[in-house]
Design brief:
By secondary structure, this protein is α+β, with helices and mostly antiparallel strands. It is about 20% helix and about 30% strand.
Length: about 180
């Protein structure tokens, strides 16, 4: 039997109504680090990390962009695996019954090739990881995705409103 291409769970994406409020909650309550903000064609949001795994906190811009969950869905949207070989990993997944959704499955440097598993759960495979993630922490062959630490000025007010809300919650609890 041929060796299987291994994936490393390094990305979790949440779909929420207010990514800045949710990000501030995780930064304040669990100490996650903000690595970047996104305003892309499909979603806007904030990316956090614990130093190994990337947590994407997203609000999808339309039902189509949400890849089947709906723009107003709140919850776990998808997970992502950093793989050695996007083409081989994608073929393995599809042979096992996965359904391709988007991304170029034939690009060896492919980024976020999306599929659904047998239960309809969306998952990504990627050749280069996600902001703030590490492929093999503690190993000599570890790869780290760069941390761009980018904030978008257009989200300044939303970021500040989220900070104030979490601070108000803290004060109400006597913290």
């Amino acid at each position: 039997m041929a060796a299987k291409s291994k994936g490393y769970l390094r990305h979790v994406a949440l779909s929420v109504a207010d990514p800045w409020e949710t990000a501030e909650f995780y930064k304040q309550s669990l100490g996650l680090e903000e690595v970047t903000e996104l305003d892309g064609p499909l979603a806007e949001g904030v990316f956090l990390t614990d130093g190994v795994v990337n947590l994407a906190i997203l609000h999808f811009k339309s039902d189509e962009a949400s890849q089947g969950t709906g723009a107003d869905f709140v919850g776990l949207h998808h997970i992502g695996f950093w793989v050695d070989d996007v083409i081989a990993s994608g073929k393995q997944a599809r042979t096992a019954g996965a359904t391709w959704i988007m991304g170029d499955p034939n690009n060896p440097d492919g980024y976020e090739v999306k599929h659904t598993d047998l239960s309809g759960i969306v998952f990504d495979i990627a050749a280069h990881g996600w902001a703030g993630s590490q492929k093999r922490p503690g190993e000599a062959e570890n790869e780290m995705h760069p941390n761009p630490h980018r904030r978008l000025a257009k989200f300044d007010e939303r970021r500040e409103a989220a900070r104030q809300k979490i601070e108000a919650n803290r004060m109400a609890e006597g913290g």
